[in-house]
Amino acid sequence: MKLNLAPIRQASDGLSPTGPGPCADLFLKFAPEPFYHYYRTLAPQLPNNFRDMEPLFSAVICGCNAGLFREALHEVYIPRIQRGESSFAANVLGARGASLLVLAHFFEHGRWAKYFAT
């Protein structure tokens, strides 16, 4: 499964330029914190399918890119994506690839033994 980050480029709330292209990509890269807050509120509190879970994956990625590792982990990833120790997204929804992609953002690039402090 591939995460769909296209809605970032189409936000109509004034947070980003609309439409695809390098301007939207730069905005996402250098101003990810507003998107963290936007995406975490976009999804239902406890999504029950991959489509509804997708904004939470995006929220965690944006949160990590903004340096909000602790918030992304303790407010979104563990309670809403993993649902504690049940590994809901991976085991129930079968979203193992997306879960791994999200988890990778908690580690320094290319260094699995070195995670960012939360």
Model regions low in confidence, pLDDT < 50 over at least 5 residues? 8-23
Specify the number of helices.
7
What integer is the average pLDDT?
A: 79
Give the radius of gyration: 14 Å
What is the approximate shape?
A: globular
Largest sheet: 2 strands, antiparallel
User: How big a fraction of the residues is strand?
Assistant: 5-15%
SSE succession: HHHHHHHEE
Number of strands: 2
Strand order of the largest sheet: 1-2
- Count of the separate structural domains: 1
Roughly how many Å apart are the termini?
28 Å
Question: Could you say which structural class the secondary elements and strand pairing correspond to?
Answer: mainly alpha
- Give the helix level as a range of percent: 55-70%
Task: Please characterize this protein's 3D structure.
Helix content is 57%, strand content 6%. The chain is mainly alpha-helical and 118 residues long. The chain has one domain. Helix 3 (33-42) packs antiparallel against helix 4 and helix 4 packs antiparallel against helix 5. Mean pLDDT is 79; it is low at 8-23.
Keywords:
118 residues; two-stranded antiparallel sheet; mainly alpha; 6% strand; 7 helices
What is the topological layout?
Elements: H1 6-9, H2 22-30, H3 33-42, H4 50-65, H5 69-82, H6 88-92, H7 96-104, E1 107-108, E2 111-115
Antiparallel strand pairs: 1-2
Could you give a short description of this structure?
The chain has 118 residues and is mainly alpha-helical. The protein is built from seven helices and two strands. The longest helix is centred in the middle third of the chain and has 16 residues, at 50-65.
